[in-house]
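USER: Please consider what follows.
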Amino acid sequence: MEEHDVKSRLHRKSIRLRKDQAGYALMWVLVLIILAGIILVPLLLLMTAGVTSSAHHEERMHRFYAADAGIEDAAYRIQNNDDDLPQYADNAWNYTLDEQINGYPIDVTIENIWVLTDLESDAHGTMPHAELVVVGTIEADGLYQIEITYDGSQGILMIDRIGAWLPGGYSYVDNSSSGVVTHPKIPDNPAQSDFRGGTTLIWDFNGTVKFQDMPPPGGGAPGSAEFPMKRILTFEFTPSTPWPKGGFSWIRTNRHDIYLSWDVASGTYKVTSTAGGTTIESYISRAKPSDRISEIYGDYRAIGQSLMKDASGSGDDWSDSGIRDTLLYGTAAEEAEVNDIPNDATVELAYLYWSAWRRYPIDITGYDEGDLAGLAQEIDEAEFKRPGELAEWITADSIQILPNETGSGSPNGWSYSCRADVTHLISGNGNGNYKVKEIAGITTDALNDQWSYAGWSVMLVYSSAEEEAHQLYLYDDFIYSDMNTTISLEGIEGFLAPADSDGRLTAFVGEGDDLWNGDKVKFNGNYLPYYGDPYDGINPQNDVWNGKSSGLEGEFIDGVDIDTFDVSPCIDAGDTSAEVKIETQSDSWNLVYVVLSFSTVPGTESGLFPVGILAYSYEY
């Protein structure tokens, strides 16, 4: 009985517990429903907002990519030197892309701006000066050079600043500056600041420094017989490759008439592109031809002639004494022909060079800048005849004067080199006959010595769809080479030689003759002409400046060499650099220019005017 009561009580308790548990479950379900209401509603709202935000973000990205297409279109037009591109100080160019991108019309504005905008004051003018010239170049991987020349024609210039700009991603290497920074008033390192997505480097002097008192190239005391006076500042940057695009340099004086000079080898454009309310603003730099001409689907041609000969030699044109006694001016001047440029070619760059020796004054080492500027005015014009046109007088935009001194320091007059950019005068593909009818020169027949020469050359760079990509280099620093001298050309880098690469080297040299020998050209350790190349028999390896020009099929032109050498056998597939040395022993001469061309694996940019997008900013 008691056992039955116990079981009964346990059974009733179990039933009561189950009823109680059912109540608790209902309570928890209600709690979960309430919590779900509190959590899920905001979560659903958040998800809805996220979907909406994602749609808006996607729309913004579509607008951004559409506007970016406008920037790329502008870069392409700048790259290809579109005829509608504005010149500096012109009104901006506004246009709409022919096709919509992502459903949006795209409006583009291109403005050619002063490169020093927001860096220097424009109160004293924004046009460059021919008297004071600044050129910035990449001399080798990781090495930037600022070359500054002054012709002395405006008297004393006091300098207080040199500046440079590197695009984003590149940095100055501390304590790497050299050249003029050895002057005690010029700092070893520049002040650095952010600008247009890159970095400005500014060497602010401690006071001002007279231009000619800045240390000249190679060190030593400044000389008085330089024309133009040249000063150089170099520095290193990282990463060393690829080379930065769009860098520029400038110099500042304390005068208002020649206040600033800057690197005019590059143009800077401000580009604005708008699509559906999204605007992108960018600065784009275009590198124009300068000392290093860069990559081009095309090549070059170089021709020229002498304007002087020894008419009393043993042959009609032969000089066995090396004394040139007759000027070939006017109708006596001979032509030179270019006939193998492709029909579809466009001449992108044309330089006319002329060079000669002068006797009086015999010694110019004591001349000041004004005297040298006066001499420059005597030799700065050439009477030039291009294909199909009458001759016209051309004025040089670059003049260089050097004294001719023997190893003992004895003066022997002076020589000069002039260069004029005649690109705008050359029409068609550049083929035809060229002639220079007169320059300032003097013979030495009455003096019985061998210094005299007078000659000219035209160097054409052309683009053509029929040509492979070539990397071109031009060196036209005027150099007087006395006996027992070796000249090394630096910075021949940046190409990538394919299999079966071709390469050529052309030099324009004054005072070449067959009387003296020992002058040689060495390319990648090999003397030229390389054995088996087609110019053997014209230029012996130990007498390349012999007055016989391979560019004119071996014609003797007396006193001038315009020699082209095939360097293809000296280049291996994969080469990215080259070494050129020019030597002399018993002979002396003047080097006017050297131009080199190497076939290269095409880069991502083609054509003569590579561009770099320097900085982006955008708004919605």
In short: The longest strand covers residues 198-210.
